[in-house]
Amino acid sequence: MNVTPRRVVFLGAGAIGCFLGAHWAAAVQAAGGRIGLIGRDATWAQIGAGPLRLTGGTAADTDLSLLDLHDSPEALSEADLIVLTLKSIGLERAIEEIRAYAAEGTPILCLLNGVSAVEQLGAALPAHPVIAGMVPFNVVWASGNHLHRSSAGQLKLERTPVSTALAEIIAPTGAPAELQDALKPIQYGKLLLNLINPINALSGLPLHAMLCQSGYRRIYAATLREALRVYDEAGVTWQTVGPLSPRLVQWLLRLPDALFNRTLLRLQKLDPASMTSMAVDLAAGRPTEIDAITGEILRLAAAADCPAPINSALYDLIKAQEAAPTPQQGHSAAALAQLLRL
């Protein structure tokens, strides 16, 4: 049985999907395959005639002729590997589209945030093998044809015959993958990092500028400490994602500004202008991924009968802003700490 993916189709091709697809396109074509991207009309309308420029890490320019751009999920019928790079809030719709258009047995590589999407896909689409994956970095549209990777890390994939074949093809590209025998501990590790997202969304600041301020760092430290307690009570097995353990980070976040900014902040290699996707979504009036991120901590807390008041309050604040006619960002660290009763 040939497990090498030839026709790789991204469903939900936003910044992450277009970045990965553009980096992989030449290598996949050299292996006799093709990259397809299924995205929104608005995404394709902003791309001009020139190549896609990829920066941050290994830079590249990808000619659009190497990519098949689609605005309809009907293109799933051509796939022998589906890569999900949409927001977690779009998972139910993606399941229906895969069920309607994809050939039975087509593997699905799930790169969604959170830890429960793989199980949801497996339960809803039992005829499709589901491969877990984790993207540790952020990608932003710098302009119409320019995608910029604004943080560090390497793509992680659950080890299967299909993912092993894919990893061999994309190894020489600017977005290679590292294979892991067990991915869920890594997903739980990334979830701890993502707990900064609601704080960043409520601050309205670029992530780098926010982390330069000790007040916001103390809020994140308290959020992280509470989540680690939930993990301990729930018996969660997790693995550090990034250069330092969150158990150490929760203390380093309390360092004075001058010392923190010269040490830990530099290790993060953050782009000065980058914001979390939750901050961008909230500013645009779109639903956020709060349920897949902070909501997962609250589900674990409830199951373990472990209080999580800080994460619960952050969840409620984001939900309130999602429901507001005009979301209010720009909360100062002092104002946010007061709302969280810190």
Automatic annotation (TrEMBL):
GO biological process, alphabetically ordered: pantothenate biosynthetic process
Pathways involved: Cofactor biosynthesis; (R)-pantothenate biosynthesis; (R)-pantoate from 3-methyl-2-oxobutanoate: step 2/2
Main enzyme class: oxidoreductase
SUPFAM superfamilies assigned: 6-phosphogluconate dehydrogenase C-terminal domain-like (SSF48179), NAD(P)-binding Rossmann-fold domains (SSF51735)
InterPro entries: 6-PGluconate_DH-like_C_sf, 6PGD_dom2, ApbA, Ketopantoate_reductase, KPA_reductase, KPR_N, NAD(P)-bd_dom_sf
Keywords: NADP, Oxidoreductase, Pantothenate biosynthesis, Signal
EC number: 1.1.1.169
Known catalytic reactions: (R)-pantoate + NADP(+) = 2-dehydropantoate + NADPH + H(+)
Signal peptide (UniProt feature, chain positions): 1-30
Domain Ketopantoate reductase N-terminal: from-to ranges: 9-158
One Gene Ontology cellular component: cytoplasm
All residue ranges annotated as the Ketopantoate reductase C-terminal domain in the record: 185-321
GO molecular function terms noted in the UniProt entry: 2-dehydropantoate 2-reductase activity; NADP binding
Free-text function comment from the UniProt entry: Catalyzes the NADPH-dependent reduction of ketopantoate into pantoic acid.
UniProt family annotation: Belongs to the ketopantoate reductase family.
NCBIfam families tied to this protein: apbA_panE
Protein name: 2-dehydropantoate 2-reductase
